[in-house]
Amino acid sequence: MMKKNYLFWLLALLFSVSNYAQQPVGIGGNWTLQPDFSDEFNNGLNTNKWDHNPNDWGPWSWETRHTKVNNGKLKLTLDWDRHTRGGKQLYFTSGIIRSKKNIKYGYFEIRMKGAPRHPGVCPAFWTYSIGQTVKVINGQRVKYNEIDFPEIQQRKRNVKLIDWNLIRADDARPQKRTSVRETTGGGQGPSFDPRNAYHVYGCLWESGSVKFYIDGRLVATANASEAALQQHQQRLVISLGLREPFYEYRNGSRHAVVTNSRPSGFPTTMQVDYVRTWKRAGGGNGGGGTACAPAWKSGATYALKDEVSHNGKKWRWKSRTNGNCTPGACGRWKNLGACSSSNKTVTQKTSSGSEFSNYIGNGDLNAREVSQDIGFGPSGLLNIYPNPAKNELYIDSDGMSSISIYDIRGVRILNKQFQDRTTVNVRNFAKGLYLVKVANEVTETSKKVVVD
Fold first, then answer.
1. CA distance 80 to 284
2. CATH entry 2.60.40.3080 includes domain 382-451
3. Closest Cα to residue 416, out of 403, 398, 431?
4. What is the model's pTM?
5. Per-residue pLDDT tens for 72-100?
6. Which fold has domain 289-338?
């Protein structure tokens, strides 16, 4: 009996220690782990929570054989693999996992190591929305949301540069995509090469606020006006994407570069130790009221620049000595003002000589790039080709889609639904001009096509 009791208490202790250890790195507060968006990868790939064969998009394809779990690590591989998709010649396939459920708000954390090959690949940890309805937010029509936290190795000139993107798209015809990029400052990147070792990358996504972390340190705060537009439910994704020089931009779209033999450095594999997703205990989203920062805890220990909320105000620990005392009752907390229910956030900039300079260089860490075509999610995938068409017309889309074709008189001569891609036989069409309309869950387009 004593042995059984001893074993019971030992297991309980181990369980307690394990749960205690699994707290967000460097983020204070009360958090609850979300199992549907978390994985230690100790027991193979859990296909009940992860999809590793989603619809293809872009100038490469996803293949299940490139997603493996062994020795407690998720391994995603990208390799030269000459193949055809939707009538187009492509040259690479890669691995991905995507959550089967949607999530909105939380702290997202991954411990990963980049792929050896550079340039040409991009290990990424991100979210994107699928099939959401339009939200009108601050006068903007938002159909699609995406947060990249982070994308590493994708800059050809410097492997150390790390990017974070907030992307949105409307429901216009054609769809307008806007991306605001936060990048490591000074054109230098962190002090480390992300290919060489594991690092912890995190994102705190709350109502009206998106913040990015490396190894538990805040390194970028997203543009507040764009963060306020990230309100759609999204899927959580880990992927190894293709990048330049193996595709190029032409007319606002990405096109595969002819690659007729395996380049050096391929196959290449990124590795993930774990992914963990958290919600604030009690379901708070932050960004307003007393949840503008984690609630102050009397028994916690705080370090320089840690932030808490207490008595309706936001406080920052300003002492270089770790410790604790009651905010407002001692001089070691800086009063940042009242918590507000607005969507405004304060953008934190780090100047030369700060404690973060060894991570981000000495430049402005919030240097922004705005573009209509930066995102890499599936919302922009809607291609109709070739034009003119002689025998067959190919349509690439994402998910359940529909196509309608009208002749020059406005008479609809074809109307059907399809999944991902389809081929239309136009051999028996009369020569002339046709209007082709294609729509999926995210966007739609119309194109005049000549049948020759």
1. 45
2. yes
3. 403
4. 0.67
5. 999 999 999 999 998 899 999 999 999 99
6. Seminal Fluid Protein  PDC-109 (Domain B) (2.10.10)
